[in-house]
Amino acid sequence: MNSITDSALLSNGVKMPWLGLGVYKVSNGDEVVKAVRTALEIGYRHIDTASFYENEEGVGQAIKESGIPREQLFITTKVWNTEQGYEETLQAFKRSANKLGLEYVDLYLVHWPVKETYKETYRALEKLYKEGFVRAIGVSNFHIHHLENLMTDCEIKPMVNQVEYHPRLTQQELHAFCRKHQIQLEAWSPLMRGVLLEEPILVDIANKYGKSPAQVILRWDLQNQVVTIPKSVTPQRIKENAEIFDFELTAEEMERIHSLNQNKRIGKNPNDFDL
């Protein structure tokens, strides 16, 4: 992990860049277009969006305007809860692909484990994968019991599980389960929406390396073998988030950061998500 172009290798052999740009709560139109264009100009090649974010059109516009060859990009989107079900998901994917202006998507995820429908939703993802419309499939916000239940019936094991993950929520049991089953863990809200940026342990480590606490957290993600997608619309912050490949945390520093865990969420618990 020495470069922004370095990638995790998914279980099917597809390469997924370790660092990406998340665009949750980024407004469609100029705001998302500028954020994605900035990231691509800096060297990001991984962009994460979702149907629920309502900014797929802007992401697609930025991709088109960038002029970067499609095969060099890794684009993720997700099927929302109200779109779930087998036929519904197939239609939802068509809508997302059209909004993005893409013939295929690199990663398609089930956004949340809607109890009544997530298995049928995932079956639609398997169809899309087999037909070549997506290069990899996976889930988001799945606990171990959700994954175990899904894997009793699915033909193709999820390749990615995108979850809330940061030093206050290290999810070590889930991470170990995913490693065992070759499911790549991916972090949403890796910076805990800025809550951790004044944490003394992180500030201390950051000062040692001449980095920011945010950069330390993102480096911790990578050294834990977790793909990370920090969100920002500020050019300087997007650039700063990418400057994490020129230093390495020691084993002791990694443990100090792990010690911050409180199993504390800022998002919903997937077991209690109100649909």
Automatic annotation (TrEMBL):
CDD domains: AKR_AKR5G1-3 (cd19157). Residues 22-261 form the NADP-dependent oxidoreductase domain. PROSITE patterns: ALDOKETO_REDUCTASE_1, ALDOKETO_REDUCTASE_2, ALDOKETO_REDUCTASE_3. Keywords: NADP, Oxidoreductase. InterPro entries: AKR, AKR5G, Aldo/ket_reductase_CS, NAD(P)_OxRdtase_dom_sf, NADP_OxRdtase_dom. It comes from the Bacteria. Belongs to the aldo/keto reductase family. This is Aldo/keto reductase. It comes from Anoxybacteroides rupiense.
